Hints:
The chain is mainly beta. It has a single domain (2-204, 236-354), classed as Porin. The chain has helices at residues 2-23, 52-55, 61-64, 324-327, and strands at 76-84, 90-99, 105-114, 118-119, 132-133, 136-147, 152-165, 168-181, 190-200, 211-214, 224-227, 238-248, 253-263, 269-278, 282-291, 315-322, 331-338, 346-354. 35% of the residues are buried.
Amino acid sequence: MAKTRLKTVAMAAFIAVALVSFASAQGPRNGTSGASYLLIPQGARYLSGGGATANAVGIDAIYWNPAGLARAEAGVSAIFSRRNYIADIGIDYFGAAVKFGRLGSVGIAARIFDIGEIDVTDIYFPDGTGEKFTPNFFAVALGYSKLISDRTSIGLNVNLLNEGFTGVVATGMTLDAGVQYSSFLNIPGLAIGVALKNFGTPMRYGGSRMWVEAAVSGSDRETEWYKITPGAFDMPFVMDIGLTYRLNLGMGHLDIGGTFENNHSAQDEIRLLGEFTFGELASVRFANMSATSVSDNDNTPDVDESEIENIWASYSFGATLNLKQFTGLGLSIDYAFIATKFFDDNQIFALRLDL
């Protein structure tokens, strides 16, 4: 009885917070936060994320919904993936998770961005000074998840962020929280999940390069050193609500899922995914993501919807091959292709290990 009350309270609390989040985030908000790299999906198994909030499990769940971390069948799991992102940017993602029985599961995952070298420019040399710099962006997530009943799991992530370049740096911390509930409405195969992600205090750049030598215009004073105080930027807070339904078939099972993402710094998104799994051998999947239209409000009266377009609002597909019957280990390879507007399409390769 106590467990039933607990899972009911947990689900009710998350839905209440989700509704408040939805109500407070209406209108066009594109470009109103920083650290947008936190919104880049990781791994290849769940593609655009359709339904992942409800059914992502194991180490993959650290990004989609930390509540799924405790639902992994394996005691130890690990992942490494490489994503060929836009503008010749590469993203390496790796992590590991361990189950500790009734105590729950813990995991760690890191995202490292390979941006490459960029020419240094200034007001005197707009085409480049001959110097180059390399931006550094990475995020580390520490996750914990626990099953509080046979149907309900909860989870929490602490994300540590670092971004900067020569002499300039910004650090921050965000929190993710989530819940997953299986056999929703007592319907076998139906699952629901809610995740609140990237909740944190604003970040601000600092460092030695924030000091500049300059002279006050119109004065006889000699040049002095002045500190530039940059504006703070908010975290890209999002709320995801997802549903999935599993239909068992003769040769495997079909999963159909959808996720609505309420985004505080961009357009809201609707993500759909269908996946067919051939026993324990392989699976294939197809997904689609669409962005909601921009609506005008009193705060931004000059918004032109034609100027705000989501480059990810398109299709994606992928597959997984389970290598356990060939290697004797719980190895699997994931692949995903994500169509992109205006830029080169993205491809993701991932290697997962479950023991």
